[in-house]
Amino acid sequence: MAESYADRVEARVSASAAHQELAEALAVLSPEDREVLLMIAWADFSYEEVARALGIPVGTVRSRLHRARRKTRAALGGVDPSAVEEETTRG
User: Fold this and answer.
1) 62 burial class (0-12, 13-18, 19+ CB within 10 angstroms)?
2) Beta carbons within 10 angstroms of residue 86's beta carbon
3) 17-69 pLDDT, tens per residue?
4) Greatest CA span in the chain, whole angstroms?
């Protein structure tokens, strides 16, 4: 079934709002935590690759990632940002 124009507009508005909320959530992270989160989530680096690239132990990568995910989730009201992205890109 073809999606109506109104449905497409609504989906774009929702996606735009989600992107703005995510950008605001990322802005409050420390540069170190944000860097690790983006390298894992968007660059698809492994923990080991991030550790090598930044010259830090893998354990530090894990703790920064955990902290970044927790703060991002809290800033988004408990919503998993990857779930928001999947919902807004479907359809």
Assistant:
1) middle
2) 10
3) 667 888 888 899 999 999 999 999 989 999 999 999 999 999 999 999 999 99
4) 51
Would you say 88 and 11 are in contact if contact means Cβ atoms under 8 Å apart?
yes
- Distance CA(21)–CA(72), nearest Å, equals 10
Alpha-carbon span 36 to 42, nearest angstrom:
10
At 83, is the secondary structure helix, strand, or coil? Answer: helix
Overall pTM > 0.85: no
How far apart are the C-alpha atoms of 43 and 6, rounded to whole Å? Answer: 33
The residue type at 84: V
